[in-house]
Amino acid sequence: MKTLSLSVLMAAPLVLSSLSAQAVTLKLAHNLQSNHVVAVTLKHMAEQVQKETDGKVKIRIYGDSQMGGPRQTLEMMQQGALSMTKISGSELEPFEPVFSIFSLPYLFRDQDHFNKVVYGPIGHELEQLTKSKGFVLIAAYEAGTRSFYAKKPIRTPDDLKGMKVRVISTPTTNKMIELMGGSPAPIQFGEVYTALQQGVVDAAENNIPSYVQTRHVEIAKYYSQDSHTAVPDYLAISNMAWDKLTEKQQQILMKAARDSEKYEQQLWEAQVKKSRAEAEKMGATFVTVDKASFRKAVQPLWDQFRKDPAKDAWLEKIENVK
Ligand code: GCU
Asked: Is the C-beta atom of 168 inside 6 A of ligand 1?
């Protein structure tokens, strides 16, 4: 009896440590093509995690909308069918209303302001706000500024009158398009090419790398640089998946996620230049617009945010970042 209990006691830590180091596969889905900077970054991050956990944590990536758009993949995460996804800050609005601030046009003064907010204490606080919804955000990626593109130049909001414009559809983005004179069309990212081609929509809006990689540039030759929003992409992980990892594995994943932010930032600027040159070669025109008229058109959206105490508090925090 005595020997038995002793051997059980001695074996216990061994059993525990081998259990905790069991191999885990995390499924990560996104809607980007494999050569997109964020897709390349996610692959790089997955390799780092696998290497540093001695192969115990594998991240299997399903890109190019294979598992649907970000809202679907996030819902799959909430149900436990998926571990991680990439989602644009705008698309988080239905899950946590404060994320609507990213769809507020002309929120950031410049790139430095964006960086200080998104990668600083405010951004880190935002990343935890979705925890009660079953997931948290562990990395934020630069995604440039979004501007309109169509078969004709859009120099002032007047030019958008009567146009159907594809947006990442949320109450805030829809309102933005309406205030600028267009009608918002909720279409999944992967379906925009066909929608533009068939005339289901007249315009869309995105950053330059996405405009080019999706080949939307083939159809919509005028990219009008009104730069209405600057919306980061986020890497989200479900609480369920996070809890499957040992503390050490969580640390490794978190570090790889933060490292991946820097990795992506380094790739981004070069990609913008490259995509722009490619677009010009394909006959695209980059149009300078009257930004003041766009700002003026969306003033009612700012007034609406100011009247909402929760949103106003976040706005103030963001504006106070110097
Ligand atoms: C950008 C952004 C994506 C988003 C896409 C869209 O490419 O990086 O996260 O899904 O725009 O317009 O849907």
From this structure: yes
Q: How far is the CA of 2 from the centre of ligand 1 (A)?
A: 64
Q: How far is the CA of 91 from the centre of ligand 1 (A)?
A: 9
Cα atoms in the 13 Å half-sphere on the side-chain side of 311: 20
Q: Whose CA is nearest to atom 3 of ligand 1?
A: 88
CA atoms within 13 A on the CB side of 212: 22
Report pTM. Answer: 0.93
E strands, the chain, where? 24-29, 57-62, 84-88, 135-141, 146-150, 164-167, 183-186, 203-206, 222-229, 233-238, 285-287
Check if 210 has its Cβ closer than 6 Å to any atom of ligand 1.
yes
Q: Which helix (H) or strand (E) holds 261?
A: helix 247-281
Atom of ligand 1 nearest to the CA of 233: 9
According to DSSP, residue 201 is labeled -
Q: Residue 14 above 90 pLDDT?
A: no
Indicate the length of the chain as a whole number.
Answer: 322
Report whether residue 88 contacts ligand 1, using a CB cutoff of 6 Å. yes
* pLDDT recorded at residue 151: 98
Does the pLDDT at position 9 exceed 50? no
Counting ligand 1 atoms within 8 A of each CB, the residue from 168, 173, 275 with the most, and so the one to mutate, is 168
* 143 CB within 6 A, ligand 1: yes
pLDDT in tens, 52-100: 999 999 999 999 999 999 999 999 999 999 999 999 999 999 999 999 9
Structural Rg of the chain based on CA atoms:
22
Query: What share of the chain has pLDDT > 90, as a percent?
Result: 93
pLDDT in tens, 150-196: 999 999 999 999 999 999 999 999 999 999 999 999 999 999 999 99
Contact 56, 233 (CB under 8 A): no
Report CA(88)–ligand 1 centroid distance (Å).
6
In ligand 1, the atom with minimum distance to the C-alpha of 141 is 8
